[in-house]
Design brief:
The chain is an alpha/beta fold. Helix 3 packs parallel to helix 4. The chain is globular, with a radius of gyration of 19 Å. The chain starts with 19 loop residues before the first strand and ends in a 6-residue tail after the last strand.
């Protein structure tokens, strides 16, 4: 009798095996969850954020589990800092295969359009739009020199519809969707895929901070989600991991909801 049983001597390669991936906003929330997940899927990750102490903690955790991780300080309101972070990736690894542009800031003044201040608009433009613009161009320049890659931008469910509570935030995230789509078309010939994700309510530190200033927002968010709960940060990171992987080789210019049906 022929024995058709095959023995697998090693674990299957991870979703991001052999890739170098930069993650902004990696010190907490979705970014930190992404760093852990991408490393577990085989990527060499470079974590970027202002909170370097928190970054170092995540880096040490990843290294303790056998992963490859480094940290770089990055201030999303400083365009030179963003370019320096991408240059650091090149010095560390010589290339960049994937970038998860996840860093951002929620509008501090919650309220209607006519109470939104010039400062709100300026901060949202600097961090939630211009920072992504700068990062994408720097990342694409490096990817173009090293054979292509994939970029994922974190937008928001707030970009998909009128946003009475956070009008400046929603406006800049909608603008981010637009440049994501434009970048996908522009850089396709360079072998660079560009996609976005629009998370709904997610159990992050940022959401807990919003709850502190607007009690009841978590309960209301869960009630408005058909799946009946908010996402865990890792669930959002899983969508980004797939988009960055070769499994999504024909996906570019997509803005993918990760919101439990709340935007349907």
């Amino acid at each position: 009798m022929t024995n058709n049983t095959h023995t697998i001597d090693s674990a299957p390669a991870g979703l991001l095996a052999g890739k170098v991936v930069l993650i902004t906003g990696a010190s907490r929330g979705i970014g930190a969850a992404a760093a852990r997940l991408f490393a577990s899927e085989g990527a060499a990750v470079v974590l970027a954020a202002r909170g370097t102490a928190a970054l170092d903690s995540v880096v040490q955790e990843i290294r303790a589990d056998g992963g490859v991780a480094d940290a770089v300080a990055l201030d999303l309101s400083d365009r030179a800092s963003i370019r320096t972070a991408v240059d650091r990736v090149e010095r560390l690894h010589g290339r960049l295969d994937g970038a998860f542009n996840n860093g951002g800031v929620v509008q501090q003044q919650v309220g209607p359009l006519d109470t939104t201040t010039d400062k709100d608009i300026e901060e949202q433009f600097a961090v939630n739009f211009l920072a992504h613009w700068t990062a994408m161009n720097a990342e694409a320049a490096l990817m173009r020199r090293t054979g292509g890659g994939a970029i994922v931008n974190t937008s928001s469910i707030g970009s998909r519809r009128a946003n009475r509570a956070l009008p400046a935030y929603g406006a800049m995230k909608r603008a981010l969707n637009s440049i994501t789509e434009t970048a996908a078309v522009t850089w396709a010939a360079d072998g660079i895929r560009v996609n976005g994700i629009t998370p709904g309510g997610t159990r992050t530190e940022m959401m807990r901070e919003w709850e502190a200033t607007s009690p009841g927002i978590i309960e209301a968010n869960s009630a408005a989600t058909p799946l009946g709960r908010m996402a865990e940060p890792r669930e959002v990171a899983e969508a980004a991991a797939w988009l960055l992987s070769d499994r999504a080789s024909m996906v570019t210019g997509a803005i993918v909801p990760v919101d439990g049906g709340a935007g349907a």
